[in-house]
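Z., the sequence and structure:
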Amino acid sequence: MEYMSQEGYDKLVAELRQLELVELPQVRDAIAEARDKGDLSENFEYHAAKREQGRLLSQIRFRQRVLENARVIDTKVLASDCVGLLSKVEMTNMANNSRMTYTIVSPHEANLREGKISIKSPISQALLSKKVGEVVEVHVPAGTLKLRIENITL
């Protein structure tokens, strides 16, 4: 079971539709065009299009499985007094007093550029169930971080 936000669910549905309705028909057309050129044993375009079709079908199956097991979380029932899935956490790195804000999301929604980190990441795991004002130690590949939770919102 994968818990995710409505935004993440909608994004996956849109990606699946794009793959099924736009990209897959293009690849099928490319295969048909390459097949018309004759000898398939030495036809590079045909083999490249078949590989692309396999890659697309794999991506489609993956997204279908994720969506089958997805459960959209109602943010109204989530507690905002402690860190959990879909919490936006503002924290301070105690070593250099730098502030950072991350939203904890499902692994399929994680995007560091947007400030969304996976619930399975070391930082998220250390922050789960913690409250404002608590200091947590996070073991990351670069060493150990001490983070103080400044604010939690949904």
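The first helix runs from residue 6 to 36. The radius of gyration is 22 Å.

Let me know what you think.
H.
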